Amino acid sequence: MTAYDEDRPADRLRRLAERAGRELEDAPALEILRWAADTFGERLCVTSSMEDAVVAHLAARAFPGVDVVFLDTGYHFPETLGTRDAVEAVMDVRVVTITPRHSVAEQDAAYGPKLHDRDPDRCCALRKVEPLTRGLAGYDAWATGLRRDEAPTRAGTPVVGWDARREKVKVAPIARWTQDDVDAYVAEHGVLTNPLLMDGYASVGCAPCTRKVREGEDVRAGRWSGRGKTECGLHE
After folding, report:
1. Could you give phi then psi for residue 75, rounded to 5 degrees?
2. Checking DSSP bridges between strand 168-171 and strand 44-47, what pairing results, if any?
3. Quick one: which of 121, 164, 181, 226 has the fewest CB in 10 Å?
């Protein structure tokens, strides 16, 4: 039995999240994840885009065997899928791959080819947002790799917050980290990272909507370049 009562309604979960966000604001990432593991047990998962495996690595230290949810959109770079497979092979985690309801070919038939070019918000909703909501159905809390320094839209990310849309506790253990902190953790622990990060990509998403960044550009400038879009909708 954990410290968390699985029958608590959403409003009590929300209050729990808000209180933890205040109390753990200055806590180390590993302590935040240990709190989440102790509180939610197997009702906790980690989500990973396989840009790197830092949060998965941290979570495995706090909760060996933790579920790591990965969205296979059908548009990933081969390097991203390879990183997922490597994480599953070498870390004490259980990778859970979630796929959209329809294949790329089925989506093309229903909406026309290259929906990502014509309506990227719709494409993200179909291939990311809906699958994640479905994939999180069996959990009460999820941990992400969001950091405040990544984009203005993420500057207010709490280390523990409330995902009102999904009615789940959302944990961002490295919210206060900088890229230097991430790099130092990767170097110290030999954490797996996506090979594309060494090839000019600062942020890795679906292949059709991701490009290399140029010198001086924002870290997320290579995502949906030229489309006035900065987020896929998972964290909105």
Report:
1. -120, 15
2. unpaired
3. 226
